[in-house]
Amino acid sequence: MRNNLPLPALGKHALLGTVLGLVCLSAAAQNNNPVRDPNDQLLREQQERLRQELLEQNAAGKIQQDSQPTAPAADDSAFPAGIPTTGPSFDIRHIQATGDSSLLSARAFDRITQPFLNHALAVEHINVLLDRINKALIQAGYTTSRAYVGGQNLKEGVLSITIVAGRIEAIVFNGAPATSVGAWLAMPMQEGDVLRLRDIEQAVDQFNRLRRNNVQVLIKPGQTNGGSIVEFVNKEGPAARYNLGIDNQGSSNTGRARIQAGVDLGNVLGLMESITLGLTSSKETNAIYGLVSVPWGYNTVSAVASISEYQNLIGDTALVYGRSKNFSLSLNRLLARDQNSKTALDISLSKRESTREVNNFALTPQAQTSLRVGVNRLTRFDTALGAGQWTVDVGFSRGLPILGADKDADDLPKEAARYQFSKLDAAVSLDRPVAERLVYRSRISALWSHQPLYSSEQLFAGGVSSVRAYPESFLGGDQGLVWRNELALAKTQPLWGSARYEPYVFADAAILRTVSDKRSRSIAGLGAGARIAYQGAFADLQLGRALRSPDGYEKQGWRVNASLTYQF
Questions:
Q1: I need a surface site. Which of 215, 287, 405, 424 has the fewest CB within 10 A?
Q2: DSSP 424
Q3: Global confidence as pTM
Q4: CB-CB contact of 522 with 547 (8 Å)
């Protein structure tokens, strides 16, 4: 893409242009009005999208079990007094677990059995107790494990309850034994393990990370006592899915019109891996990126890489050319999950290298390495109007002097940006129905650092993924938050055929502070839009009005954002 634009009046004017460019870039380095590589957000967006997709995978409704457990007693916290009994009763002073007793914690077992101590128990009471223990096993995910009472002498006042673990007798994938490397990597369990629903749900989520997959599970009784056959059935789609897109969300300096092209590949290497390759281009920018993720039971290992270039004419004589390379390696570990929530740990190591030139005069290249450790959680909930969810993602990042990264000078001015920085970031989102056909969506993104940051590490406001009435990356800072709000009309009737649309209104705001000059700046905007989906096409049209612009920034008014994507 690199163009050596004709510079008028070479010699003295070209020298002045070079000096002008250096002065502008130097001022930007002080973070008063940070200049950002137009494609700098590619790596960050890919990382955030991957974390969100892993978090939002939902195996609910994809697991069926041939035999369902008997419904337990409604009240599991009190002694079932008053139930009709037949036969003898025995005074029970102690209740103990035998067999696979580790499936339930001692605390959970004691909580269930405590109401039955020091009571005369008949067979009917013991059956209620067994129902409650089985309920606890099911809630813990051991859906095929059972508790029972064997023959014993209760005259001593001791009741022994035997817990028998249900085990996986065989694992089948599309009618054949699941022996492929990809299946082995995706599943956190194997034949002979105790059957735990959470393990099967995780396997389903790992399989369905691939857009080509639509895996469902059937748990069937096996041939052995307590054994089950876990059968995965996949309605597989094409190995490659392509997408083309166009939007007007580029910067005014490098071209608002952008084109995008990409391909998603699934399991082409037989590792149940997901591969994404893409290109984004505008008049004065190009960027290519790639993402590959491989499952490993409760872990997902991912690598993201991007290369981008841009050029920008400052004034009439200074041509700035920039190029950056980004690479990130991350590990996502699922820490806990239940029917309604997931909690995961995310660790990522990123490396960024950038070079810039002004009129072919090379500036000092920059190299930065950072480590981020974060925890994220998703919780789904039900309301009288429908289902909703909230998410939270909190992370700590540290710039490290490794892998060839630049090191901060000992005499670095206090207001200068740091390579070895520390920062905290957080994001909270809420999605819930507020009326029969209205959905409220909100997201807050926050950042805090006590040190000046380079633009690649700052929080930016502006653009369709931020404050929607402003240009992309309009405002940046080392501290602050961005708040997006949206009220959408859901469950609308088709426009024609299978075409669906979702009209919405939005109100977004941000307040950001740069540490170098201790100044805070804020923006706010509101507007309306509509999303339309028809077969493989998706369009989003927005009209927004900027309500305020900080001093020293170009005044903003009405803004139209439009995008069109086609997948095939």
A1: 424
A2: E
A3: 0.86
A4: no
Supply 36's token pair: 């950002």
- Between CA 226 and CA 167 the distance in angstroms is 6
Q: What is the pLDDT of residues 265-323, one digit of tens each?
A: 999 999 999 999 999 999 989 999 999 999 999 999 999 999 999 988 877 778 889 99
Per DSSP, which regions of 178-257 are E strands?
A: 215-221, 227-234, 240-247
Positive or negative CA dihedral for 180, 181, 182, 188? positive
Structure tokens at 415: 């207001």
- Cβ atoms of 203 and 178 within 8 Å: the answer is no
3-state SS of 58-122 is CCCCCEEECCCCCCCCCCCCCCCCCCCCCCCCEEECEEEEEECHHHCCHHHHHHHHHHHCCEEEC
Q: In Å, how far from its chain's centre is CA 472? A: 22
165: three-class secondary structure by DSSP: coil
- SS3 for 16? helix
Give the up-direction half-sphere exposure of residue 545: CA atoms within 13 A in the CB hemisphere.
5
Q: Where are the alpha helices (DSSP H) in 295-419?
A: none
Helical ranges in 291-353 per DSSP H:
none
Cα 516 from chain centre: 32
Model confidence at 397: pLDDT above 50: yes
Structural domains in the chain?
A: 364-568 (2.40.160.50)
Nearest to 424 by CA among 372, 464, 472, 465: 372
Instruction: Give Cα separations from 536 to 400, 539, 566 (angstroms).
Output: 43, 10, 5
Which tokens belong to 284?
Answer: 């004065």
Residue type, 68: Q
Give backbone dihedrals phi and psi of 24, rounded to 5 degrees, phi first: -65, -45
pLDDT in tens, 189-203: 999 999 999 999 999
Query: Closest Cα to residue 461, out of 445, 440, 443?
Result: 445
Q: How far apart are CA 549 and CA 555, in angstroms?
A: 6
Strands (E), 338-420: 341-358, 361-362, 366-383, 386-400
Q: Which residue has the tokens 């920008």?
A: 312
**What values do phi and psi take at 385, rounded to 5?**
-100, -10
Q: What angle do CA 287, 290, 293 make, to 5 degrees?
A: 155
Q: How far apart are CA 58 and CA 50, in angstroms?
A: 15
Structure tokens at 461: 């406001």
Q: Which two tokens stand for residue 519?
A: 């100044």
Q: Residue 194 carries which DSSP code?
A: B
